[in-house]
Amino acid sequence: MTEKNPLISIIIPAFNEADRVGNSLEKLTTFLNTRDEEFEVIVVDDASTDNTKAIAESFKDKIENLWVLRLEESPYAGKGLAVNKGVLAAKGDIVLFTDADFSTPIEEIDKLLEKINSGFDIAIGSRAADRSTVKKKQHILRELMGKTFNILVRTLTVKGIFDTQCGFKAFRVGTTRQLFENQKIFDFGFDVEILFLAQRQGLKIAEVPVLWFNDQRSTVHPIKDSYRMFLDLLKIRMYYARPNGSSLDKLCYIVYHYRTFWRFSIVGATNTVVDIGALYLLTRIVGMSAVSANLISVEIAIIWSFIWNNLWTFSERNVSDPLWKKFLVFQFVSLGGYVVNQISFLFFFKIFNVFDLFAKVLTVPITLVFNYVLNSRWTFRDERSGKASWLAYSIFILILFLLYFFLTKTLSVPFFGR
C-alpha cells in the first residue's frame, strides 16, 4: 500500500495587489501544472480596496483547489493577520506562505519542502544565509534598516536566525498550528513571534538560502515602519516574559505584568506637572489668589488624570459603568487620596519628627498605592471580576476622614492645612 502524499497549502496574503497578483497566479498556474503533489491555494484578500479579490477569483478555472478568503477591515489588519487566517483555514499537512509579488520564485518551494520532509518543523527562506541568492537588491536605506532590525531580533528574541523577515516560509502543520493559534502580533513582527515561540518549544527550524528579487514597489517606510518593528520586538518580550527566566525576562515580566501600575504612576507624574502648571498660569497670568487657584488647578489635574487613566492605564479592561459614574467615583477616590496624603504627612512630620520636605516625599508612594488600589478595584474594575465593594470602600474613605479630623484636633493643626 503506497503512502499518500501530503497536501500542501500555499497561502498568499494580498493587500491592494491588483497589479501584481494576476501575474503571480499565472506563474503559479504554470508551476502547479508540472507537479504531481496535491496542492491547495488560498489567497487572503486583506481588506483590499481595489479588485484584488476579483482578479484572484478569476483563476479558479485554472488552479484546482483555489479559493479566496476575504478579510474585512479591522484594527488588526495587516500581513500577519492575513497569514494567520490563511494558515488556520488551510487543510494541508504542510503550509507555505509567500509574498504576493513572488519576490522569491515559487520554484524555490522544493528547498523548503526538502527540509520539512527531512524532519524539520519549520523551513524559512533566507536572503542572509547566502547573499549571492539576492538577484535584485533593495535600496541601501531599506537594506540597512533590515540588517539593523535583524541584529535587534537576534539580541532580543530569536537566536541564531539571520533573516526572519523573508516572506517565504513553510510549516509542518501537526507541530506548528498551535503557534498561529496563540499568535498575538499581526504587524511586521509576526514572523519573529512565530519563530520565537517555536524556539521556546524546541521545534526544529531550518534557514534555507533562496533566490530573491526585490520589488521596488514595496510600501515599507524606512522610518515609521522601523519604529513599529521595534515596538513589536518589545511586545514579544513583554507578552512571553517569564518570572523565573533570564534577567531580561524578569525585567520584562515585571514591566508587563504590572503594566497598569506603571502606567498609573506615569499619569500621576504628569498629573503633578499639570497641577503646578495650572497653578502658575492662574496665579501669574490670570491673577487669581493662590488659595482659589489651587482649588482649580487640583481639579484640572484630577480631570487630566481621569482622562488618561480611562484612555490608557485601564484601557484593556471591560468597565461597564458609564463615563459620568466613573468620573464621580474617581473624584471621591482622589479626595480620599488627599486625606491619605495629609495623614501620612502628619505622621511623618509631627509624630516621627521627619524633616518636612522628606516627609512630603515619603507620602508620595503611599498616596500612589492608595489611589491605584481603589481606582483599580472600584473606579475601573473589570466587570469580569464581579461587582466592586463600593460600600466598603466608601466607609473606608469616610473612616480616613474621621481619622484625619482626629489627628488635626489632637495635633492642633488646621483641617485643610495652611
From TrEMBL:
It is a single-pass membrane protein; Multi-pass membrane protein. Pathway: Protein modification; protein glycosylation. Its EC number is 2.4.1.117. GO terms for molecular function: dolichyl-phosphate beta-glucosyltransferase activity. Belongs to the glycosyltransferase 2 family. GO terms for biological process: polysaccharide biosynthetic process; protein N-linked glycosylation. Keywords: Endoplasmic reticulum, Glycosyltransferase, Membrane, Signal-anchor, Transferase, Transmembrane, Transmembrane helix. It is an enzyme of class 2 (transferase). Residues 263-353 form the GtrA/DPMS transmembrane domain. It is found in: Endoplasmic reticulum membrane; Membrane. It comes from Candidatus Woykebacteria bacterium RIFCSPLOWO2_01_FULL_41_12. The lineage of its organism: Bacteria, Candidatus Woykeibacteriota. Gene3D superfamilies: Spore Coat Polysaccharide Biosynthesis Protein SpsA, Chain A (3.90.550.10). It comes from the Bacteria. It catalyses: a di-trans,poly-cis-dolichyl phosphate + UDP-alpha-D-glucose = a di-trans,poly-cis-dolichyl beta-D-glucosyl phosphate + UDP. It holds the Pfam family Glycos_transf_2. This is dolichyl-phosphate beta-glucosyltransferase. Signal peptide: none annotated. Residues 9-173 form the Glycosyltransferase 2-like domain. One of its GO terms (cellular component) is membrane. The chain crosses the membrane at residues 261-282, 289-308, 328-349, 361-378, 390-408. Coiled coil: none annotated.
